[in-house]
Specification:
It comes from Lactobacillus paragasseri. Pfam families: Hol_Tox (PF16935). This is Holin-like toxin. There is one protein chain. The chain has one domain. It contains 2 helices and no strands. By secondary structure, it is mostly helical. It is 82% helix and 0% strand.
């Protein structure tokens, strides 16, 4: 249960970052890839 909740929180954070990057620039894409590789 805890791991599933953490996964959902991480998903929401990724979606928020995608929206922010679309509003500004796409320079956060490399940061997103690093976050995905860490998990």
């Amino acid at each position: 249960m805890l791991a599933f909740g953490t996964f959902i929180v991480a998903l929401i954070a990724l979606i928020v970052e995608l929206i922010k990057s679309q509003q500004k620039n796409n320079r956060l894409s490399s940061g997103k890839l690093a976050v995905i590789k860490c998990r």
